[in-house]
TrEMBL record:
A Pfam cross-reference name: SPW
Keywords from the named record: Membrane, Transmembrane, Transmembrane helix
TM annotation in the entry: 40-57, 69-87, 93-115
Protein name, per record: SPW repeat-containing protein
Originating species: Prauserella shujinwangii
Domain SPW repeat-containing integral membrane: 16-109
Length: 125
């Protein structure tokens, strides 16, 4: 059986964090191909960039447990953003925010145990 603690402690190796980077990039760039309002566009760009940046930070520092918590919060913000920023009538933008947000929450939650293991293994505090 493979030792997952060794893999989870190595930078740039966790697929959950790579998924978060891709999800963030998709959300940030989606206003290029979707109809959006100004509020929807900037919300998607900013949240997408933050998700991607936090995913990159988690990849670089695998023991940074709070990074996964931040991912979950950013995913939740993406899920509620169509209602808060009033773009539920822009179907493509709203569904993109809901789907990317939900997948970001799932990826962050799935990476949390790996980050905790890497944190313990590396002795990071």
């Amino acid at each position: 059986m493979a030792d997952t603690s060794a893999t989870s402690a190595r930078p740039w190796t966790r697929p959950h964090d790579w998924a978060e980077v891709v999800l963030g990039v998709v959300l940030a760039l989606s206003p290029l191909w979707l109809d959006t309002s100004t509020a929807a566009m900037w919300t998607m760009i900013v949240l997408g960039a933050l998700i991607a940046i936090d995913g990159l930070a988690s990849l670089a520092m695998p023991g940074m447990v709070y990074g996964e918590g931040i991912q979950i919060v950013l995913g939740a913000l993406a899920v509620v953003s169509p209602w808060v920023m009033s773009y539920t009538d822009l179907t493509g933008a709203a569904w993109t925010s809901w789907i990317v947000g939900a997948l970001t929450i799932i990826a962050g939650a799935a990476a949390l145990p790996l980050a905790s293991t890497a944190h313990r293994t590396a002795g990071q505090h």
